[in-house]
Amino acid sequence: MDTLNLIESFADFARQKNIDRPTMIRILEDVFKTMIRKKYETDDNFDIIINADKGDLEIWRFREIVDDNSEDIWDHDKISLTEARKIEPDFEIGEEVAEEVELEHFGRRAVTTARQTLIQKVKDLEKDILFNKYSELVGEIIAGEVYQILSRETLLTDADGNELVLLKSEQIPKDRFRKGDSVRAVVHRVEMQNGNPKIILSRTSPVFLERLFEQEVPEVYDELITIKKIVREPGERAKVSVESYDDRIDPVGACVGMKGSRIHSIVRELQNENIDVINYTENMELYIQRALSPAKLSSMKIDVENKRVSVYLKPDQVSLAIGKGGQNIKLASKLVGMEIDVFRELTDAEEEDVLIDEFNDVLEDWVIEELKKVGLDTAKRVLELGREELVRMTDLEEETIDEIFKIFSQEFE
């Protein structure tokens, strides 16, 4: 391969990869300097002139002329008078010889290696550019097209054909994709695996929901409304606390929109995820009440030191506070940053009931806590609920649940 073809083929390849001209020249120089060092041990006395647009390459070697018997004759930057006069007959000692070195002088194998090295350097540079580009986009929403669906991940491509990965764990459980679908997600993280950038997206991250609010609610984008915190059960339920520093703006109303116009598009994107928008306040009691909405609380006791709060509700409000599968109370706890225990207010008929705390001599503390988490604070309440329902609502093993029913039943015999 001659010089013209080598430079032109590399320049075309680099332009296809969107490599800018200065970077392209730098790569060429680095590769040719490596060739020179392999042959001459140093590149100190060489100049490389490249015109990538025309495909021109010139390599010049500079050496000082010394006497044939000089001790310096073997130095890399010296040349004997006899050798110099073969190049130009009127050279004298002390003058400098500028000699052009043809690419063919390095041998076909070296030139072929140079071409391969050039292409590899561009590919490596392309990977670095891609890694840096997406590292700066972490936390931003992008759209990709589905091109392959695997058991553990879905592969997408961006507008430039780069591969994006949406892991199964980062998909909303109700997500169902087909090849060719356009999918929106947030750039979750970027990793280097075996020298290749891996761009991982997420649709379950709270950041994804936050960016959707920024897109749909101008006041959030303009920072007139601040999103204080987001907690999610992806595809099921989310709680978003918002705050406005402008008294004229209702942050909840602005986020929901007229007749829910703004939030509906977000809900559709998240596969009908139920989104509760809550007005943030530093008044912890009020904040907890809002977080447990739509349930209405009768009273509460806050243990600030242990970050725990006990809330008391009328019987018909307990299930609302807990929510489907315990989602409401779980998300409320995360939102306020405290563990919430739900208790029913006892009616006169329930006065004869026994608090489950009184069974701490026969039941382990963690078992009692698990029952409290789902609003079961008395023995009769547990028995009324039934075994199957208790299995569904808690993480307790069936053997443990059988033991609980046996102990509580004996109490009222």
TrEMBL record:
**Which cell locations does it reside in?**
Cytoplasm
Q: Which GO terms describe its biological process?
A: DNA-templated transcription termination; transcription antitermination
Superkingdom of the source species: Bacteria
Keyword terms: Cytoplasm, RNA-binding, Transcription, Transcription antitermination, Transcription regulation, Transcription termination
Q: Name one GO molecular function term.
A: DNA-binding transcription factor activity
Primary location: cytoplasm
What SUPFAM superfamilies does its record include?
A: Nucleic acid-binding proteins (SSF50249), Prokaryotic type KH domain (KH-domain type II) (SSF54814), Transcription factor NusA, N-terminal domain (SSF69705)
Q: Can you quote a single GO CC term? A: cytosol
Where in this chain does the record put each S1 motif domain?
139-204
Q: What does this protein do?
A: Participates in both transcription termination and antitermination.
Q: How does it assemble?
A: Monomer. Binds directly to the core enzyme of the DNA-dependent RNA polymerase and to nascent RNA.
Which family is this protein grouped under? Belongs to the NusA family.
Protein known as? Transcription termination/antitermination protein NusA
Tell me which species this is from. Marivirga tractuosa (strain ATCC 23168 / DSM 4126 / NBRC 15989 / NCIMB 1408 / VKM B-1430 / H-43) (Microscilla tractuosa)
- Upper taxonomic classification of the species? Bacteria, Pseudomonadati, Bacteroidota, Cytophagia, Cytophagales
- Give the gene that encodes this protein: nusA
